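Why should sequence recovery work at all? Because a backbone constrains its sequence more than one might expect. Tight turns favour small or flexible residues, buried strands favour hydrophobic ones, and helices have their own preferences. The token representation captures these environments compactly. In the example below, the structure is given first.
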């Protein structure tokens, strides 16, 4: 799982640097287009064994996955690397909330409620519009965490009926189709870069290589996370997964962006700690 977190942190760092040239929509396109051929090749080499019959779970996962990718790369474009990944690591808090309201027989103990409050207090500490991004940019970070949580719940159901590779194909495919539509709308329609539209910028050879590396790292995240879940308890995987925030801070320091301020750093710590305690 450490390798998965490292892959995710490096992928996010590459996306952050590429966002100076490319819109978040084009980054979603790169991220999705690179991974799909490898997944289809894997399915060709080793066909899926599955029961199927619940296509709406796959479609739901695809839609949630595409929306989450939009939020991830848009937030990365406008906020810091470690701050974006901290918002992402808040997903266990939202899983607990959504499970309580959406799933039967799912309750919250008094301790879980306490850690939820601590985690959301941490979100309040890092939610600082004006000092580091607008209200909308921080909001997309929170929506990113919420989308990730809903995506995990959809995966939990979809994997009962479908091979995990088809689950990944669903959101990569949805991300690819959605990003193509957004890029065509922005480029041909004359719209500026935004959350939903993007203007195509033709990459250089070096930038195509970086896009390929970013996509391969995203595949690495999927592979190493799957292996971790097969060989370790979910709680342990969740704890080690929080190391993505630490890797992100280290990368930001290496790139010369410095440490987060004290308030933000405390908020990040509270979110990671509360998420770990809830997912145990």
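From this structural description, the recovered sequence reads:
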């Amino acid at each position: 799982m450490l390798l998965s977190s490292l892959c995710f942190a490096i992928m996010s760092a590459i996306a952050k640097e590429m966002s100076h040239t490319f819109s978040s929509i084009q980054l979603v396109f790169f991220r999705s287009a690179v991974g799909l051929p490898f997944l289809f090749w894997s399915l060709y080499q080793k066909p899926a064994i599955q029961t199927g019959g619940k296509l709406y779970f796959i479609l739901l996962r695809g839609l949630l996955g595409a929306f989450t990718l939009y939020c991830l790369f848009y937030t990365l474009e406008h906020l810091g690397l470690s701050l974006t990944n901290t918002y992402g690591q808040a997903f266990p808090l939202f899983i607990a909330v959504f499970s309580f309201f959406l799933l039967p027989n799912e309750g919250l103990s008094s301790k879980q409620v306490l850690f939820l409050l601590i985690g959301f207090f941490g979100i309040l500490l890092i939610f600082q519009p004006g000092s580091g991004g607008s209200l909308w940019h921080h909001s997309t970070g929170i929506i990113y965490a919420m989308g990730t949580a809903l995506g995990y719940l959809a995966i939990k159901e979809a994997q009962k009926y479908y091979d995990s590779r088809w689950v990944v194909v669903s959101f990569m495919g949805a991300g690819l189709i959605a990003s193509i539509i957004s890029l065509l709308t922005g480029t041909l329609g004359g719209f500026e870069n935004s959350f939903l539209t993007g203007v195509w910028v033709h990459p250089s050879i070096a930038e195509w290589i970086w896009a390929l590396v970013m996509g391969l790292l995203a595949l690495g995240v999927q592979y190493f996370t799957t292996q971790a879940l097969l060989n370790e308890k979910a709680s342990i995987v969740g704890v080690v997964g929080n190391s993505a925030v630490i890797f992100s801070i280290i990368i930001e320091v290496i790139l010369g962006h410095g440490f987060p301020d004290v308030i933000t750093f405390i908020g990040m710590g509270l979110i990671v700690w509360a998420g770990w305690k809830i997912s145990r």
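A few observations help interpret the result. Residues 2-279 form one domain.
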